[in-house]
Predict the structure.
Amino acid sequence: MSTPAADTIATTGQADLVGPPGEPATPARILRPYGDTTGDGMVQMSFTLPMAHGKLAEGAALQLAQKMGMDPAMVVHAKAMGPGYCFFVVYGRVHHLVDTSAITVVERDYPLLSPKEANLAVRKGLRRRMTVVGACIGSDAHTVGIDAILNIKGFAGEKGLEYYREIRVVNLGAQVSVPQLVASAQEVTADAVLVSQVVTQRDAHVLNTREMSAAFREAYPADRRPVLVVGGPRFDESMADQLGVDRVFARGTTPAEVASFLVHALVTRRKAAA
Amino acid sequence: MSTPAADTIATTGQADLVGPPGEPATPARILRPYGDTTGDGMVQMSFTLPMAHGKLAEGAALQLAQKMGMDPAMVVHAKAMGPGYCFFVVYGRVHHLVDTSAITVVERDYPLLSPKEANLAVRKGLRRRMTVVGACIGSDAHTVGIDAILNIKGFAGEKGLEYYREIRVVNLGAQVSVPQLVASAQEVTADAVLVSQVVTQRDAHVLNTREMSAAFREAYPADRRPVLVVGGPRFDESMADQLGVDRVFARGTTPAEVASFLVHALVTRRKAAA
Amino acid sequence: MTPAGSDPRRRSGTTSTRARRPKLDLDPVTVRRARTLARKVGRPIVRLAEQHTTVSVERATLRMAGLVGADPEGTPWANRLLDSVRGDVGLEHGVALPVWDALVRGAAGDLGELAQKAAVGSVRFRLPEGRDATRAAAAAKKSVGAGLRRIDARRRERERLIKRHGDPSQTPWIYLIVATGDIYEDMPQAQQAAREGADVIAVIRSTGQSLLDFVPEGATREGYAGTYATQENFRLMRAALDESSKELGRYVRLTNYASGLCMPEIATLAGLERLDMMLNDSMYGILFRDINPVRTFVDQRFSRQVHARAGIIINTGEDNYLTTADAVEAAHTVTVSQLLNEYFAKEAGLADWQLGLGHAFEIDPDVPESFRLELAHALLARQLFPKAPLKWMPPTRHMTGDVFRGYLLDGFFNLAGMMTGQGILLVGMMTEAVVTPWLSDRDLALQNVRYVRSAAGGLAEDFQPAPDGLIARRAQQVLAESIDLLTRIVEHDDGLLDAIADGTFGLMRRPADKGRGLDGVVPLAPGYANPARELLEART
Amino acid sequence: MTPAGSDPRRRSGTTSTRARRPKLDLDPVTVRRARTLARKVGRPIVRLAEQHTTVSVERATLRMAGLVGADPEGTPWANRLLDSVRGDVGLEHGVALPVWDALVRGAAGDLGELAQKAAVGSVRFRLPEGRDATRAAAAAKKSVGAGLRRIDARRRERERLIKRHGDPSQTPWIYLIVATGDIYEDMPQAQQAAREGADVIAVIRSTGQSLLDFVPEGATREGYAGTYATQENFRLMRAALDESSKELGRYVRLTNYASGLCMPEIATLAGLERLDMMLNDSMYGILFRDINPVRTFVDQRFSRQVHARAGIIINTGEDNYLTTADAVEAAHTVTVSQLLNEYFAKEAGLADWQLGLGHAFEIDPDVPESFRLELAHALLARQLFPKAPLKWMPPTRHMTGDVFRGYLLDGFFNLAGMMTGQGILLVGMMTEAVVTPWLSDRDLALQNVRYVRSAAGGLAEDFQPAPDGLIARRAQQVLAESIDLLTRIVEHDDGLLDAIADGTFGLMRRPADKGRGLDGVVPLAPGYANPARELLEART
Ligand code: B12
Ligand code: B12
Ligand SMILES: Cc1ncc(COP(=O)(O)O)c(C=O)c1O
Ligand SMILES: Cc1ncc(COP(=O)(O)O)c(C=O)c1O
């Protein structure tokens, strides 16, 4: 429902058009949230505080809202949840400005290829098929996401990597341990390793990914390490460095984006380096 | 549904009991929002930014969340609303602490009286009936709130001020202009004037109340001015001074609270002053 | 636009038309009885309306004849001119004869100039007699007739555009409000709402406009909780929605309020600017704005005649009763008001397809079986007025700051609307108890409607209230109580006026000799002439 | 607790019992045909189960006999002891004879000591024969019998508590999950949920536990997205809910998962700690955890026998199919699985009232008529299994970060549950696509249930799908497709095992000789003895 279409993303490299109402639009750099009037700064929030319902709790909710930069803030709903917790809905105006020129977005810095183009690039560039190993690691058993990228069936109308003639896909499935994954990658001399992480409670996805990238760094000489890609709905795409991987994909990723990145990383970039 | 019961409020003068899970509770002064674990600081937000949907917009949403003190923040939903607006749902952890010792709450600083007690106090203290004028001023036509306080029928099981034998109620109804209100108050020599303001768009309630209190200050010598009370669902009870009134009542007010305040202000306090 | 073509229910694929049998077994004799009583109650009021005029009816006549604009202080020339005439010769003969007498006499080249001259005292009015009167009357008729033809042309234009762009493909029609106070914020918001599926846009009026005895002028940006109804705002918004209609391949309708002290004038402006629906209730102004009852009934009749002529669908205001009275206890007052609104509307020439009779989903959600009681009420209205589109209003009174709960309630409201074949669905906002709707509230609300319609719209087919079940019994009870109430009204000495005076509706007491705008009511003198009224009457 | 008393539907005031006629006209011959086919498919699997044992079945036997605790590394003594026995004499004769032979021989004073000694190698096991075998068998039977009597006592205790505190006053029973990962956060959250109306609390397990071939020990605070199932956690939570039951005057049930590699042991611990329901599906582990099919079926049968004995209601996992397969296309696989789960359950001694057969509201909300299709599926299950409580699962797959939309969807899920008389309603969370449920999510979700139940619960009375309408046709179609599929399975050379191998369910291919835990499967040798199996079998 809210999945951003990949292509519109790539072409939107600037803040959009918001001008005085009724007048021709001009690009804006500084924005505020919009309730029903330009510049009103209105937002909605809800949260729980671990305290009994009452005036003090409502005051506490207001205090939090104010610390978050809301002024005025209205506590429009407060409900006791048992003796020790209270749930709030707060509406109000935030005074922060959004500066669109200060946003770092991981834009696609490589061309989006059709399966045909990708196949051609691999054939010409690698002169052999590209081998890709995929898995859900740790205790994560959510395979739907990685399958969406790998299986022929694909995602959002795009075929998955199995459909690419020049890509060999080894999908290890769910709950693969990191040593198992490294071993499999070595066994099939993987060019790239694709890992999915969906469970995020207590930062499971971050910890598992770091463990995985460290293991590959350990097991391979730097110049022979397969390209490491991680994906899942709650990843922040700008975190690749912190996670020790080459690329992070988040919610709504489509197979072609991944295939294109792999071609870029394994064919185009390596050729350029060579 | 969420109306705080008046009495529980008055007795809750301290942060409630939150201790280590499973252990006996001890009062906490410093709190964080609670998602599913003590101290996790989790909150939910939604807002619109006036820009096209896309990665830049999601980055902008994150930036706002970060400025509000959320880290990490997750943009879990982003939906284009036409070409120039995008709606977001964001979840994340805020790092602000709520300090319950720094909250100023307008506690009821007078005893809550039954109708009988209130009548007795008026009879003894004023030696005449107390006259109260009520109205919705400005263009506001929402009379249900003021009627809940004034009409016999009352609110939340409590009878309204008309039920009090020693209170004479003159309810002027909706859309009363400030000059009209002042004239009526003078005509009936009102002891107190009760004004309701429900419409808040563009701070209508604040502007109208200020206009009203200024007019009364103008029309009366300081020591003869009737007690000014304003009420409505979106008022902040701590704003009495800024509004130039003697007391502000917000959502969930009951008639007995108002009657008790009037007795306090007109009988108890004046007697004390004399 | 033909009546049939514009009956929203006609195009229904999923509503009552597919049901197996009428969902309620209403006794036809009882139903006929209810209508007879409504006629009895209404007829004296129509007579009363025929015997009076008001400042606003007379100003509407001037506007119909083309008088526009305002003086530098913002007082419309229609008001200035009317006041001059009234000062000189009174109103009991109408403005037409004195005004066109002056024009025929050459006191000014047109109405605008005449108003300006009158304002500075350089023209005085008289009541023409004999040949002068005949000539003035003819000139007036010509001018006003031209105005009526402009309204007719706008109606034809609407029909053309509907043919070109098409009507909504489903019922209920989706009705959304915008209310920023600034027409320039309203326009993009309305267009966005249309894009997301709105079939009808209503621009909510600023608080207090209903008590203004003049219609503000020009484009406005400073309303409170709504935007002023002005001719220019009408024009701007209609143009914006014409753009949307083209963009979307679906004619998007525009609504405003013919209500308050200027009801006749606003109705006229609506006809001239091709608005498509108007809030217009026979008693709302009396009950909720303390407007004098006679003033209201006179203004009502004129405005409804204009709406009939302009092909405008009216929306009546029964939902409002339930914001002050309890929706279960007072359910029958809604039915009674619908019956009266139907009577007054038909008497004024409105066709069935123009009767957006109101009702609302306002039962306290904590009442056991509240949803089924809502279904009972909604079905009763549906079956009592089978050819009227019916305007179904969302929960407001029992909405709270819990916006999640509010979003759910609105979903069940939408479901009730679909299950009972309502014609026009005013989309509820999760922020009802918080703020006037935000852009995102509207977007979310439309998503709610789309889900319910697509997922469960067809449930009407499977909905067959048990013949002796809660729903059937409740509907019968409300109908019986309505007949009791109508009977009691008929038994009042002075019928409806007395009933209104003693608090029968919405718990408000409104005596016939009190209320705002009373000084704008004038009993007709013999010789009263008003070409607008004559032309409109001739048509009906 | 008698079966009748615990059938949630029995107490229904508002569900199908009040309906006028069965909502679907299902052909009884077709229904009988479906059951016959399920029996044909299932019987060879039962025979397979009878011919094998597993490490977990044997460990469960030890636990039933009272073996508790773990070594300092956290490996349970049950595992250590089993491994020693297996190392010494293999498992094909079961652990009972070698273990009690050792005890009878005086190698240790009790099971715990024996395990410790075995772990350090100071005891060796043998397979007793003749009189030794008879004596060992008798001792084993006595120990295990005592354990079974403890389970019986917990069942009686439950019955007493239900009598004292009462069952929920309505159906569906409200089922809520807690999932903090920390049993000490779970407890207050569960109690708060009960206060707000939860009838059943499920403690979700940490990710990965199902692949552990041991049951962790003690109170745990470090699960990911769920809390470890341990005997101590069971005990703590049951005690917390016993408090709540007292506070609320309503017996609050507790659920966990008898699933994964330790299914038989966990079932046993559940019986010992008076859990009231257990997730327990005949094929879930195979399909979703890649557990070896034979391992699963053997473990399944044992665990179901324990549940039967303990008076525990099982919840099957058909909802899971619809998280990977499309809920419309794969609707019949749910029905087939329900029929198989029913067969396996009854064969293992479970009564109708213990069959919480699963199904779910997982149709893409963008599919036209999605809600009515859900009603069709839910009604089909309701009518195929009229005496089973049925476990109705909320939307998960099509939930998004739009929590408002999610809250609405959950409301319609609740409505479908009420309209079709489901017995157990797993409450959906608006944050399904975001986080494991927050305290406030649960509170809001219960408010949603309460509104729908109170406002529209009685709608079942008015819900009469047209005999030839969308709902009736859809239900018939799904039933027909189920029969086709069962027929195709029967036609496989090796029946169900082959069907599972070739991806018939949930699109997963799971060959019988692959998958996790295969090395824990052992074909029985002649002379195999297991007093737990014997005692449980005798009872059924
Ligand atoms: C389906 C599902 C299941 C199925 C999984 C079946 C399967 N074979 O995958 C079943 C029923 C088995 C299941 C079980 C559990 N689940 Co689950 N499940 C879901 C559910 C409903 C949908 C997930 C999904 O399939 N999304 C669709 C896919 C296409 O989206 P995606 O994963 O985001 O993938 C896209 C992108 O992220 C990206 N991507 C993903 N991976 C990768 C990898 C690479 C390399 C690349 C390039 C891209 C990429 O591309 C994909 C296409 O765009 C979600 C709730 C929800 N609506 O999101 C909960 C959810 C993910 N589950 C959850 C939990 C907790 C569990 C359990 C742990 C609960 C329990 N304790 O029993 C269990 C155990 C599972 C385990 N051990 O991991 C939580 C996670 C909470 C959190 N944030 O930590 C969720 C969010 C539900 C909740 N609110 O509690 N679950
Ligand atoms: C009922 C209602 C109406 C009725 C009013 C009938 C009447 N006679 O009062 C009708 C239908 C006429 C109406 C019309 C309009 N309404 Co209105 N209405 C509501 C509604 C649904 C409920 C308000 C209510 O009655 N609450 C119940 C009472 C008991 O609560 P209360 O007012 O908060 O009062 C309590 C306390 O606040 C306090 N209190 C209040 N006043 C006072 C005074 C004193 C002295 C004291 C001590 C205490 C006190 O005590 C009371 C008891 O606890 C709200 C939405 C909602 N659910 O809240 C919208 C709402 C208030 N309306 C709104 C609007 C915009 C309008 C209109 C302006 C729309 C339009 N442009 O046409 C019109 C015009 C009205 C006007 N000119 O003012 C907005 C206001 C938005 C804002 N925050 O600015 C709301 C919030 C709806 C919305 N989201 O758009 N409305
Ligand atoms: C018939 C009618 N007129 C007018 C209004 C609007 O109120 P106001 O008189 O403040 O413009 C309403 C309320 O929604 C109404 O139902
Ligand atoms: C029958 C059954 N067992 C177990 C689980 C839980 O999964 P896991 O195996 O990860 O504990 C589920 C999923 O909800 C289930 O339906």
In short: Confidence is low (pLDDT under 50) at residues 1-26 of chain B. The longest strand of chain B covers residues 70-81.
